[in-house]
Every structure is written in C-alpha cells, then in structure tokens.
C-alpha cells in the first residue's frame, strides 16, 4: 500500500460504488474533489450513510457544483486544492433507467449516451488543462507525472466482446433487458481505450471495473470478492496471460467501492489498462 496520499476527483460521486470509494479515500486522508449537481445530497450521503465527520469534509473534500456535460465545471473539478491536475479520476457516472414500449428493448435510459458523453467530456477537459500547462510550464511544477491522471471507470459485466462474462442461466435475460445501458457502457469503455491508444493521450493508465449485478447489501469484505480480468477490446494478449472474467450473479456496491479503494487508489498499479470483473 502506498504511503503517499493521492489527490482524486470523483464524477457520479453519489452512486453506490463511487460513494463507497470516496468515503474510504476521505477516511484515509486523501484530498478529494467531487462534481455534484446538488452538493447537499453528497454531503448528507457521506455524513449519514458513511459516517464521515463534518471536519473531515471541511478539510479534505472540495465539491464543485455542476453537471458532467458542462466542460467548465468538469475542468474545475479536475484540479485539486493547489491548482494541479489530480492524480486519479474515478467515474461512477451511470444512467437513470426508464421503461419503454418495446419488446426488443424494454429498458432504456433517460439519456442513452450519458456514460459515453461523460467520458468524452472528461477527456476533453483534461486535454485543455494539460495544453494550458504546456503553454505555461510553471503550472505543472510539482505534478507527479507528465502523463495524465489514472482514470478508473465503473462499467458492468455483460459488455465483454471477447467471451461470456455472466452465468449462462441469466445470459439471455441479462442481454435482453439491459441492451441500452450496456451499449452506453461499451461506448464509454471505447472512448477511454481509444484515448489511451492514441499518440497524444489525455490520460495515463486506465482501469475499467466491471461488477456484476449490484446490490445494496452489507459489505462482506473484499476477500469474498472474486476477480477476473481481460485485456480491453483491440488489445492483444501480452506477456501476462489474462485469466478471463470471474462469473457470478451479484456483488454489493460497498464491496466494489472497497475493492476499488484498496486495489486501485492505494494499490500497486497492477490493474492498469485492464478490464476487471468483480462478483461473489
């Protein structure tokens, strides 16, 4: 575990997995910035549900009021207290489900492209910030790396194009009900993968976390979470063979958040540029 405290930015911070990670980061003394449309909703969640004392929020949390589609607000959220670009970005952006009259696609989202657009906005904001630093090198002094921050994106199982990543018994129902949300998550992943593969990426490493069906159950502990992983679409097998996804039916948001904190925020970086599945 690293002894250095990282600076982090959270998007979709009131979501279950992201909120659990954010709370653990605050308890560990990391400096956190979060974008929130309603800041009071986030502070209430952190104090009441996660037991974060108000003095910790006052000292370690900056909340930027705004929407993920507003690049000005996103740019502001990507800066820590000292004005430097943060070390780690966690995106827990997700769509709001909505039913529609369709036998083929009964479940849609109020914004069917929210995750894809959020990823694109974050990358655009990072490019603009990093360009401003290249134009004024004094701004970048003290930042950990000339590379961009690590981006952790919370996705879902059911989106792998390489192999089946959900149990066979629920495979037909899973893909029938969740076609629209899955397409949005796939598009989000491709935005990150394309950027990391470009000649001038906005980000450093990325990690795509694919939990199976999420529950609000009590955390069982990360030692109960099964992990599997594969390389992203379009990336060939490398020297380390990928074991493939771990198959399971559900996992709690609390345990997903704890795993992200332990392995990605305070871990040793072994999950960079991989797609990790989490389940019980």
TrEMBL record:
PROSITE patterns, alphabetized: PROKAR_LIPOPROTEIN
InterPro entries registered for this protein in UniProt: NAD(P)-bd_dom_sf
Superkingdom per UniProt: Eukaryota
Protein family per UniProt: Belongs to the avfA family.
Name the record gives this protein: Uncharacterized protein
Organism per entry: Coniosporium apollinis (strain CBS 100218) (Rock-inhabiting black yeast)
């Amino acid at each position: 575990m690293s002894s250095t405290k990282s600076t982090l930015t959270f998007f979709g911070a009131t979501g279950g997995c992201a909120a659990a990670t954010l709370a653990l980061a605050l308890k560990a003394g990391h400096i956190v910035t979060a974008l929130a449309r309603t800041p009071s909703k986030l502070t209430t969640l952190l104090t009441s549900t996660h037991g974060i004392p108000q003095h910790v929020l006052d000292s370690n949390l900056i909340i930027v009021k705004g929407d993920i589609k507003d690049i000005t607000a996103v740019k502001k959220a990507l800066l820590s207290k000292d004005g430097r670009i943060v070390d780690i970005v966690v995106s827990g952006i997700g769509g709001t489900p909505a039913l529609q009259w369709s036998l083929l696609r009964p479940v849609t989202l109020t914004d069917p492209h929210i995750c894809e657009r959020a990823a694109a906005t974050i990358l655009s904001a990072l490019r603009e910030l990093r360009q401003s630093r290249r134009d004024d090198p004094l701004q970048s002094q003290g930042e950990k790396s000339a590379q961009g921050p690590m981006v952790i994106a919370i996705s879902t199982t059911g989106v792998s194009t390489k192999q089946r990543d959900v149990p066979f018994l629920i495979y037909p129902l899973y893909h029938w009900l969740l076609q629209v949300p899955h397409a949005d998550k796939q598009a989000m992943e491709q935005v990150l993968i394309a950027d990391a593969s470009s000649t001038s990426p906005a980000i450093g490493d990325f990690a795509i976390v694919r939990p199976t069906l999420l529950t609000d159950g009590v955390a069982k502990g990360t030692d109960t979470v099964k992990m599997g992983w594969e390389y992203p679409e379009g990336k060939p097998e490398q020297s380390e063979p990928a074991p493939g996804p771990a198959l399971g039916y559900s996992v709690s948001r609390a345990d997903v958040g704890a795993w992200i904190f332990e392995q990605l925020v305070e871990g040793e970086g072994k999950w960079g540029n991989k797609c990790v599945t989490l389940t019980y």
